Amino acid sequence: MLSSAEVSNRLSSFPRFEDMLLSLPYAPRMPKGMVRETREVVAIARAFNEKVARPRALELDRKTHEDPDYMPRDLVELANRWGFYTMWIPRIFGGRGYNMPSMSYFAEEVGSVCLGIMNVIGVHYLGVAGVVASANTRLAKRILGEVARGEKTGNPCLIALATTEPGAGTDVEEVELVDKGRVACHARRVRGGYVVNGTKVFISMGHVSTWTVLYAYEDLKRPSETTVGLMVKTGTQGFSFGSHENKMGQRVCPASVLVFEDCFIPDDQVLFSTDMVRKFTKKPIREVAQRYIDYVVGATRPGVCAFGVGAARGAFETALKHASTTTMNGTLLINHEWVQSMLAEMYKNVALGRLAYTEANYANSHRGLYKILQLKPVYYYLRLMPQAYFDKVIGPMLEKDYSTRLMGKLSYDWARPEDQRCCSGWASLAKVAGTDLGVRNCQMAIELMGRTGLRQDAGVEKMLRDIKLLQIYEGTNQLNRLNVFKCLIAPEVPQARVFDEDR
């Protein structure tokens, strides 16, 4: 038997035990209430599928193909009535306060029917994560409070996230690459705020959202050192919409071009800037900006994995139904060994993808953006206290400067680099795994079903079109593979260079 010291030493060597199997050390720390919540969330998703998603998925795909300018406002209103836009917003900001990992299971369920419909719901939380990650509690209370009021009044308030630029693509999701990209969205500092000029492209739900989280740069020659996060309200002078992309898949979820022409954003709508960051940390803005991006993608890329797993599962379920009801040479397909082997492979892919997003969510729950909310005392405090308490007692505290400075300290100044790498690396790993497995299962389903799988009304070709986009969305899978190397492998190899600007 090994001594305790020997065990600790061996498990701390690369690869570290706790970095490989996050669920084992962290599962006992998770509140049991999270399991009950997740079961409830899955039940809600299945009810939504039966009543809304399944009856309308193919209809909406055809409708948006015939009318590329269609905007899913009726679908947004339905999702708002179901409470989906506040379900994963913390109660201190007026939301329903369901645990964030449960959203991945929700995404798998709805995504198994239609990724486009799921994106109409889920992309909103990219914006929510962008607001929460800023640590600007006053602005978060204001914006997320509007979302909560929009649910009560029946006027949906959605938040979009504007990152991608025409000349930079997904480069801006890695601070190491920003300076190589042709970023052009400029935020000029003026008295009382910023004046923004530039364009963002392929912004999901841009046309339908009330607010947009915008990343811009004060100095385009040094963008990584001058990153600014701004909140822009639809209808603001100088902010307009360009074309609505006619995409190959996820057609029901619009992808918009956003245009900023001398658009003034006041100081009270600044999420973060160099001046704000200096109030709670001496770390360089480049490092803080990367941390901010990692918080956002660490919280959301596991959800993208769940999208992919949903497509993988939908393809498997469709193929299983086809094999169970179709005969070949007088024998049901399901009784042919080659079909059984393919179905087993597809089932395996679903299971592996689910494990990937589960592990990534464990990383984020205990090392990432939402780690405070998943501590047992905090979790039960937030679940059990009446909402009036948060509105009347906690709410005024969030308005104070000290609240933002404290959250900034907790989130950025006192954050451990190894936690950041773990969350970001596992989020990228999950995103690549889920989307690649989703594409593979859709391809296998079409191969198994033959000519039937090519028919639009079978649904699988739509699933393939939908899932293919996710290999490119939220950082291409090539970029995410490099991030896996950067975060999970390179720290153990001193001579390794990732995103080397000198090459």
UniProtKB/TrEMBL annotation:
Oxidoreductase found in the keyword field: yes
Cofactor names: FAD
Gene3D superfamilies noted in UniProt: Acyl-CoA dehydrogenase/oxidase, N-terminal domain (1.10.540.10), Butyryl-CoA Dehydrogenase, subunit A, domain 2 (2.40.110.10), Butyryl-CoA Dehydrogenase, subunit A, domain 3 (1.20.140.10)
Classification via PANTHER family: ACYL-COA DEHYDROGENASE, ACYL-COA DEHYDROGENASE FADE4-RELATED
Organism: anaerobic digester metagenome
Family from the record: Belongs to the acyl-CoA dehydrogenase family.
Residues of the Acyl-CoA dehydrogenase/oxidase C-terminal domain: 297-365, 424-485
Domain Acyl-CoA dehydrogenase/oxidase N-terminal, chain residue ranges per copy: 37-151
GO molecular function, a single term: acyl-CoA dehydrogenase activity
EC number: 1.3.99.-
The protein's name: Acyl-CoA dehydrogenase
Annotated ranges, domain Acyl-CoA oxidase/dehydrogenase middle: 160-263
Keywords from the UniProt entry: FAD, Flavoprotein, Oxidoreductase
